[in-house]
């Protein structure tokens, strides 16, 4: 695949755009031609940068549209795919770079389950973003080129299931109509508009197995084993197919890797590429997290005083503290989320054990005994402080870690309230915290509904601490207004306000 | 086809022991908790358990094939020991092993690439489940936050209505929406039901698609969340609309009148917590504190009244009421049981070790299942006959199961031929 000396400078190739008939690609066929070692490396790094940016957006809980806006500039610079009215040789070069860089990264990221998952996630997102950039005609042509067992829903069935199809597409159609120029003018969507849209929309049916997300979220009508998918839902279907296909290909690549005649010069390049794929680690601002490992804390937080800091904790931690107080117990994920957070705010190992033991055994008659606590839980908490087992210094969970864990089950309190709680419950609890203003409250609720949990949490912090922040700003004290991506960041900011402001938090 | 020789072997002496009648749940209750002795188990495994039928049900053919021979069975013993990775070559080995081992119950798991009994001889990565029936598990303990008549392992005709409704809703979704045809419901022996779906299409599903089906059904998301309300997108999805129509007609009788949950302080506090308006919620709590034991019907009306009086605008009361109907009555499913391919589930015709009830299959489309009259108990069937199942009340369920299994095998043979023809076609 790679030659040491470039023989071609692009001229030796048949500049045939027929190789890449569509802007978008399913990457079914691997490249077969030669490129230079330099191209190999730069193309791969360019694509990697784009994927990393996408991953960062996803982990910050950015919405699809926001991610698009953020990544677009970078995409145009590093990995453009221009509309087909440009000169064909430059189009060919773009598409070739896209094609080759994808396959190079496959070699780098097929090597472990974790890398494969992340690669598929980022590539699928990129695929979706690019699909959205296509014109309607391009989308139709592209869809036709993919071999899927779908059939158009007949007029007869459309009439028979009119109500069902409307129920399943009502909200999607509504939000599609809200993007129109018409809406900009009138600011409203009528039932008639929705009905007309429905009539003009094509529906396809295919075995439900092809659209698991549309099934699990009840976004499409399911009847006799078929999912009825509207034109506007095709992306979900194709993206799902793309992700599945890519995952299968990565596994095949991994199995083939030992037999691939890999050029010695490529190995270090590939290794470096996959190493570049690291997530961002949050460094605790206040610095107490780093030496909370053993006894060398400087925070002065003790088992007794932890309770006084509840107001400085983000909602997820308040919820865990409440759950702990109520049940005198927390399940594993909850214990991990809270105990590492407490470690991060400076509760040292000795005080932590005291705290957890008191909490677990405080249930009155019939509750857990100290013996049982020592037998079953002591190890767990000491382990978190690196005092048992592998002596690893465990970091407090960031929002991304919290959001990546399974949602809390019955009698579990871990997770992120902005994601896990129903709008009404969230509303109720935010009101209890003191968010009384309906407009502000709804703003937070809407953010959570849109999946922007960290922004919602950041907003809550800002609203609850409005007076203190204003006071600081007035005094010229610097305030970090970036989005909160870590529960300990929330805590640190609250303590920062304490230190720089005379007012009490509301 | 079913082991039923009558012999002179020692039948259980415990059979005729007086059974303590539990009268907790009202006069209608005839569930007799009966702890079977090990002699009971021996006798049942020797003469009653329909091994051949279970073999056919899991094998989908008269001739032993991978569907059975590479299928995992797990035994649970009286001591509490749990033995995984059993597998059998045929129905006879299956029978002989169970008779000899006398577990208190056995569970059915997935089909693996190698016979599970050989699992130690292959690398761990080989032991990935390939196929399994899709299963659903509905259990009354998951309704403890709404039922007041019983709790924990207890059931009565009042709370069994939740299960009957759940079966109705899930059964129609499985048949009408997903188009499954080969499904059978089984009483779990005490307080719930299982559903086993054997359509080929669903047997080969991976976990992500199993999850999709169960999440489609799991409207309340009950296992992952049991605190506040649910958010139901409007307009309702056709499945929700159909379910709502079934639930609405039962709400007043089953919840408001019979369970009457909100006359208890912790329950009405929970109801108030579910009201998305803080002002209204606090006002109701204050009002109810004055007359805490007023009926659920009264409290349900109080919500209406105060909502109007306080001119609450922050949420739509009718939508909220609809959601409460879902929240109190919609089927509560164990998502993990359905999703995980490695998960095992108790086989039909096992004995529930705590009640002595036989886990009989039933057809809800023919008649609603009543656990107090339709679930034969060991003590009862041994009274009817000690060795011949055909003379006992187990005959009905076994005949029904055989009819179901025979049809399953017949259809499967036909479909398999079609599948193979299609495969050869593709290859040429």
Topology:
The complex is a heterodimer of chains A (506) and B (428).
Chain A: E1 2-3, E2 35-36, H1 37-59, H2 64-78, H3 88-109, H4 113-133, H5 136-145, E3 151-152, H6 155-160, H7 162-177, H8 181-186, H9 191-200, E4 203-207, H10 212-216, E5 221-223, E6 226-230, H11 234-256, H12 266-275, H13 315-327, H14 332-345, H15 349-360, H16 370-376, H17 378-384, H18 399-404, H19 417-420, H20 423-433, H21 438-449, H22 453-464, H23 466-475, H24 487-500
Parallel strand pairs in A: 1-2
Antiparallel strand pairs in A: 3-4, 4-6, 5-6
Chain B: H1 38-47, H2 51-59, H3 66-69, E1 71-76, E2 82-86, H4 91-101, E3 105-111, E4 134-139, H5 157-177, E5 183-187, E6 192-197, H6 200-203, H7 207-217, H8 238-259, H9 265-273, H10 278-290, H11 296-309, H12 317-329, H13 335-339, E7 345-346, E8 361-362, H14 378-384, H15 395-427
Antiparallel strand pairs in B: 1-2, 1-3, 3-7, 4-6, 5-6, 5-8
Please tally the β strands of chain B and state the result: 8
How many domains make up the 3D coordinates of chain B? Answer: 2
Summing up helix and strand content along with how strands pair, one would put the structural category of chain A as mainly alpha
* Unreliable residue runs of chain A: 1-14, 276-297
Overall pLDDT of chain B, averaged? 89
Say which CATH homologous superfamily of the largest domain in chain B is assigned: DNA primase, PRIM domain
CATH architecture of the largest domain in chain B: Alpha-Beta Complex
CATH class of the largest domain in chain B: Alpha Beta
Main sheet specs of chain B: 4 strands, antiparallel
**Rg of chain B, Å, rounded:** 24 Å
Structural class given helices, strands, pairing of chain B?
alpha+beta
Described by strand count, sense and barrel closure, the largest sheet of chain A is: 4 strands, antiparallel
Query: Biggest sheet of chain A: strands side by side, in what order?
Result: 3-4-6-5
The helix count of chain A comes to: 24
Number of strands of chain A: 6
The name CATH uses for the topology of the largest domain in chain B is DNA primase, PRIM domain
Share in β-strands of chain A: under 5%
State the assembly state of the protein chains.
heterodimer
Give the rounded overall mean pLDDT of chain A. 83
GO molecular function (chain B): DNA-directed RNA polymerase activity; metal ion binding
Keywords (chain B): DNA replication, DNA-directed RNA polymerase, Metal-binding, Nucleotidyltransferase, Primosome, Transcription, Transferase, Zinc
Family (chain B): Belongs to the eukaryotic-type primase small subunit family.
InterPro entries (chain B): DNA_primase_S (IPR002755), DNA_primase_ssu_euk/arc (IPR014052)
